[in-house]
Amino acid sequence: MPHDHPEHHHEGMSPSGHPYRADDDTALSYWQAMEIAVRELLIEKGETSAEAVQRQIDAMDSRSPANGAAVIARAWADPAFKARLLDNAGDASREMGFDIGPMHLIAVENTPAVHNVIVCTLCSCYPRNLLGLPPDWYKSRAYRSRTVREPRAVLSEFGLDLPDDVTLRVHDSTADMRYIVLPAQPPGTDGWPEDRLAALVTRDSMIGTGLPKAPA
Q1: Exposure winner among 112, 144, 194, 200, fewest CB in 10 A?
Q2: Is the domain 65-207 a CATH 3.90.330.10 member?
């Protein structure tokens, strides 16, 4: 026998009590349809397999800022590696086993006199091989346009207020050239092991919108 329970639904809420969310199902874009067609053709021709494609997707999804943090920690702990990183960041990262691909990667060093910040004004080019997927704000039009026009104001909104005597340099990434910031090593951490140093490195410090964590 059915039970009669009064239902109290608030406007904009589903019966489960969660806000309604419109479906985001849309027709495939031209590029999405092209990717599917090319992928299926390559599999049909035996050039690759569905399993190989999935392995590559899994490898890409596994990338995270922890990769970049390991590189930064090595640079802090090993002056010779730091020199190689600043000379050719791609080759130095490959030394540690990270797949950089054909991308030209440049490391820019923060010092007491210079602070670097990364942006991509064209779209959202980002060193994904070391940092994983970019945060939503990095892809936003506001960040992409304002960072080159008023970088100090943007950094202030991230909670980073730089002294007036610090030179601020903005680096614009491209499809072929990406940047990663080598933040200044926090004081009091000389001689720390790399895993402990890596725990201080934040994603935002490698973009330039933040600083490493202070040692506990």
Answers
A1: 112
A2: yes
